[in-house]
Amino acid sequence: MAGCLLTLVLAILDQNIVSTAAWSIVSDLDPAHGIERLPWLVTAYALAATVALPLYGKLCDVYGSKLVYMGAVALFLAGSVLCGVAGDMTWLIAARAVQGLGGGGLMSVTLVVFAHLVPAEQRASAGGAGGVMAGLGLVAGPLLGGLLADHFGWRWIFLANLPLGLLVLLSATTLRLSDGGLRHRIDYPGAAIFAAAASGLLLVTEWGGDEHAWTSPTILALGAATLALAVAFVRREFTTAEPIVPLDLFRHPVMRITVPVQFLSSFAMIGSILFAIIYLRAARDVPAAESGLYLIPMAAGMALTGLISGRAIARGAAPRTFLLAGLGFSTLAMILLGFLRQDTSLWLLDLDLALLGAGFGQVLGIIILLVQNSVPLNRLGVATTTIRFVQTLGISLGSAVFGIILDRVTTAHLPPGLTPAQSPTAIVTGINAVFFTAAATMLAALALTAYGHAGRNPAPEITETRSGGAE
């Protein structure tokens, strides 16, 4: 299990470690035009990681999670080496895509391995340790990225993955897992359609309102193509004998609640992290190196409530109680963040972020727990990666929507003749709107959970059938 926890740290570190080293990378590889391509360092990783998720789930269920887990770690390490020796921005962006293909398996397949190693009745308690590691990775990523870039060079933010990754691979060789065994065809055409649809959706959210206007022919055409591909994917999943995402999963009462709740909470979560940092940088003029320190209270809240809720559930407490509490804490914290002003005490901001972390620490872990405890072992892979995909999708769409809200509201409140950089008050007004929208989103997730049945009583497992897209 220690190897799984190390993998979680590795995955979370690499999601945000690039941010603080971005300027060093541009200055070294392409000082003239690199700033224009800088977003692709994140986009390439996110695209590759997202489109790979459903395929990882199916591969786990067919070939076993140990083999797939080791393959994902090896691919991630290969991508890290390619990033570390990159000679230009094009090379680095391509290498980040390779790294993302492996990274897509680090978080998702690790959770599948974790579920096979830990009996169902112990998953809640053990999941608390995962919450601690997630909090550690959240804080350490930006800090470690800045430290390595400043003292050893930006290449070491990638090469530093190697010792930890090799240790994870070594520990994986000792795993004894009995999963897998569904020796059937994998629907690679379905996976390709899904990858194209997911890529289109992520590109719409990345390009819309930034590189292209939302009503531009490029965005409209890409949106139409994405919609057509999504319809084609759903149609194929209904008709193929071996679907990548068995649609009968969504008939299960737990999945019917956890999937939308995961989407809504992930959608709102990006507003809390990203726009809290924007507030510190734009409205309070906090240096970039120091702004990451304000995530420490949030990470501490995540770790603490993850441990407490995990141990309580392991002793018989109802998961639904903690899920409702987590959603409630998160909603309240976002409402409070919506009242930020330019002169708000930073200690008060710390308390708000700690409360937010206390909420998310319960929500994210319990959703995975509910899903994994409600499906049979040979569906753990696809169920877990489905939840991870929904989480990634929510974060991507949340980032795009909140970016639009911030831009529109800030622009509407700008004094004549001033830019956003010259009017922190207008930026704060836009950030307030973002947090109030995030609070409304969390409130919807809270209502859905309160009136649903997920976590109320042990749910029946999804059974294997030969119709309706099941295996």
TrEMBL record:
TM stretches of this protein: 38-56, 68-87, 93-114, 126-148, 154-175, 187-208, 214-234, 254-280, 292-310, 322-341, 353-375, 387-406, 426-448
GO molecular function, one term: transmembrane transporter activity
One Pfam assignment: MFS_1
Superkingdom of this protein's organism: Bacteria
Topological category with respect to the lipid bilayer: Multi-pass membrane protein
UniProtKB keywords: Cell membrane, Membrane, Transmembrane, Transmembrane helix, Transport
GO cellular component, one term: plasma membrane
Gene3D superfamilies for this protein: MFS general substrate transporter like domains, Multidrug resistance protein D
Domain Major facilitator superfamily (MFS) profile: 1-457
Signal peptide: none
Chief site of localization: membrane
Subcellular location: Cell membrane
InterPro entries with a match to the protein in the record: MFS (IPR011701), MFS_dom (IPR020846), MFS_trans_sf (IPR036259), Tet-R_TetA/multi-R_MdtG-like (IPR001958)
Entry similarity comment: Belongs to the major facilitator superfamily. TCR/Tet family.
PANTHER family: COMD, MAJOR FACILITATOR SUPERFAMILY
Name this protein carries in UniProt: EmrB/QacA family drug resistance transporter
Upper classification of the organism: Bacteria, Bacillati, Actinomycetota, Actinomycetes, Streptosporangiales
